[in-house]
Amino acid sequence: MDIPARTSVLQRVPFFGGLEEDQLATVAREAHERPLKKDETLFQQGEEATHGYVLGWGRLRLDQTTPDGQNVVLRYMGPGDLVGTVAVLRRIPFPATPVALEDGLALSWSAPRLAELMERFPKIALNAIGVIGGRIEELQARLQAIATQRVERRIASTLLRLANQSGRRTEAGVEIPFPVSRQDLAEMTATTLHTVSRTLSAWDQQGIVESRRSSHLVIRHPHRLVEIAEQG
Amino acid sequence: MDIPARTSVLQRVPFFGGLEEDQLATVAREAHERPLKKDETLFQQGEEATHGYVLGWGRLRLDQTTPDGQNVVLRYMGPGDLVGTVAVLRRIPFPATPVALEDGLALSWSAPRLAELMERFPKIALNAIGVIGGRIEELQARLQAIATQRVERRIASTLLRLANQSGRRTEAGVEIPFPVSRQDLAEMTATTLHTVSRTLSAWDQQGIVESRRSSHLVIRHPHRLVEIAEQG
DNA sequence: CACTGCAATTGCTGCAACGCAAATAAGACG
DNA sequence: CGTCTTATTTGCGTTGCAGCAATTGCAGTG
């Protein structure tokens, strides 16, 4: 990918928001490219955070594993998202593992480079605060949801969030354009794949969603889900 | 409080870490003082974030209320903690309400002042990233706990965390030096006050904790709690 | 000192959701 | 085209925990 191409990717990255075209070009020049194949991991939870990444295209799932082997899906990430950069800035090991859901490409900068960039462009540090703050908000929202809502409602909210973040409009409804297994949904909503399966089956029969095996999820009637999410 | 006194408070604030004595004095000079009485709120969730605060002394409980009236305790805060500052930097309304658990004092800076300080001392922006990152970590840990552990274990972990953050060693064990109601614990561990009550009663009878009505919580045998927390 | 109000305790009941297990379907691969 | 593997469905039994309600105990107030 040449520098102008990289630059245009970086233009859509909030982390670099407010930088001039030529400044972005500078940033772009100093990046390394890291191609990603489906199912590949960008790095491993626990590794030393030597590089920070920006996802150019593709999709990632961010997994966190507990000491006793349980898994939690922290978030899904798409083009323009920051991956692992917070860990680099805080000088702590990566707290989670990003897994590629499809082929993609990430741009990376080494830890010293990042520090240098932030020093040269103070705007970046402010942007970082905004990005991280957004994640805090999201985490707090999920915490609240898990703490106070019951499973059906959480699943509905999660589907709607996925649809808003990455849904594609089709004649049949809103489609979620990457594979999401029952296990994934279970780990996102803090329940079991059994319960997710039952819930989706029920919704499928009611015509709210289309969730046949192995095809992408389609939400036929988002407003029905909204009803469930808002007050179940 | 005079400037040297303020300065010595700020020395223990990670947000201002790495600043020179005279720089801290500058920061201190530009602060406003805000005395706090027990049960008073520093600001209200939803208000515009015009000022950022640092807690000089005293203790706060940070509450978040859902649209439907449910309450979640986000965290307890003590001297040196940052309150509401993230919201100021992100230019969003305060996402939660800090309630004073005892008389205390906060220092505050207006939004423009804070922006100016960060510009003048870029180190502050980096510190902010560190502080916020720490909160993300804590939130993720809680998310994991709620998602994968059962109630007894979560209560044990929460008590241990409180003890580590603010516990005082006494002959009887480790004391938590501010009042924590069953309701509070319930909101922290995502359960009901009933279940918390039952659990603490059981532990009290087993001699693990001392949790009589209206006296401060005392953890007699932290290691027993650790056992419960680590593998229940 | 009695009264009032709030926090905590505790027994009981019901249910949402978990866990197991067996059946089923669908891709993947040779 | 058959076989293997993996994801999903679904029935059934179990249970952790919430929800309700009645009681108790403590603290502050007049």
From TrEMBL, chains A, B:
Occurrences of domain HTH crp-type (ranges): 149-222
Keyword Kinase assigned: yes
Keywords from the UniProt entry: DNA-binding, Kinase, Transcription, Transcription regulation, Transferase
Source organism superkingdom: Bacteria
Signal sequence range: none
MF (Gene Ontology): DNA binding; DNA-binding transcription factor activity; kinase activity
GO cellular component: cytosol
Residue ranges of every copy of the Cyclic nucleotide-binding domain listed in the record: 15-103
PANTHER family documented for this protein: CRP FAMILY TRANSCRIPTIONAL REGULATORY PROTEIN, LISTERIOLYSIN REGULATORY PROTEIN
Name this protein carries in UniProt: cAMP-binding domain of CRP or a regulatory subunit of cAMP-dependent protein kinases
Organism of origin: Tistlia consotensis USBA 355
